[in-house]
Amino acid sequence: MARLHRTLIGNRLLFATTYGATAHVARAQARAGSPADTPAILCSLDRSFGPHARLTVDLRLRSGEPNRSPSAADSAAVERAGARILHAFSVAVLRIEADTAQLRRLLSSRTGIADVAYPVADTTRLDVRLQAFFTRPVTASDTTTLARFGASGFLLAPGARVLSFTAADTATAHITALAGINALRAQAMVCVILN
Q1: Bridge partners, 16 (sequence order)
Q2: Cα 183 to the chain's mean position, in Å?
Q3: What is the pTM of this model?
Q4: CB neighbour class for 159 (10 Å; exposed up to 12, middle 13-18, buried from 19)
Q5: What is the pLDDT of residues 99-124, one digit of tens each?
Q6: In this predicted structure, which of 43-52, 69-78, 82-91, 171-180 has the lowest mean pLDDT?
Q7: Strands (E), the chain
Q8: Which residues have a Cβ under 8 Å from the Cβ of 12 and sit 6 or more positions away?
Q9: To the nearest 10°, the Cα dihedral for 135, 138, 144, 145?
Q10: Domains of the chain by residue range
Q11: CA distance 142 to 179
Q12: How far apart are CA 168 and CA 134, in angstroms?
């Protein structure tokens, strides 16, 4: 079931609806040291972040496909916006360096290529929030197996077939190959701002 994360931004209420662990991710990133005046999650309609000369963010690309990875068109759009690509993940996420105006263009609800961006506190780590789709209900042994690959921050509804967690980008190929996993994708998110 979708979880609701609420953050008061100026005079607006930001609803970030995710299929997993957005609230957990936001808290973890806030603890990791995101800039005080930057929300832990930057959404497509949010006008409150900035101004920042440069932000390093993980840009969650729009995708309905479970196994989508960044494409040449995604990279070209980032470069056209004037941002710099630091890393292309194995799932639909690009780590980029951008100023506030560039980031707003990339997150634009009409013309942007991404739904959300997560400010990155520790740029030496290439961790990404993932969702694994299982062919059966997830068991405790599944989380134990994933933990052996360095996965952490597990979130799962009882009896669910989708498990949300954080893992290093280098582990995604190994995780995808595990028995019982049908697909792996970047954590899905939809953002709406109510005035």
Answers
A1: 5, 191
A2: 17
A3: 0.75
A4: exposed
A5: 888 888 898 877 789 988 988 989 99
A6: 43-52
A7: 3-9, 12-18, 42-43, 55-61, 84-88, 93-98, 114-119, 127-134, 152-155, 162-168, 181-186, 189-194
A8: 48, 193, 194, 195
A9: 0
A10: 22-124, 127-188
A11: 9
A12: 19
Cβ neighbour number for residue 187 with a 10 Å cutoff = 24
Q: How far apart, in whole angstroms, are the C-alpha atoms of residue 179 and residue 182?
A: 8
State how beta strands 162-168 and 181-186 pair: unpaired
Across residues 133-146, what is the average pLDDT? 94
Rg of the chain in Å (alpha carbons): 16
Amino acid sitting at position 40: A
Tens of pLDDT, residues 22-41: 333 333 333 333 345 566 77
Burial (Cβ within 10 Å: 0-12, 13-18, ≥19) of residue 190: middle
Neighbours of 33 (CB within 10 A): 11
Q: What SS3 class is residue 158? A: coil
Q: Three-class SS of residue 96?
A: strand
Q: Which amino acid is at 141?
A: S
How far is the CA of 189 from the CAs of 117, 151, 184, in angstroms?
A: 10, 20, 15
CA distance 48 to 87: 26
Q: If you classify domain 127-188 with CATH, what class do you get?
A: alpha beta
Peptide bond into 158 cis (omega under 30): no
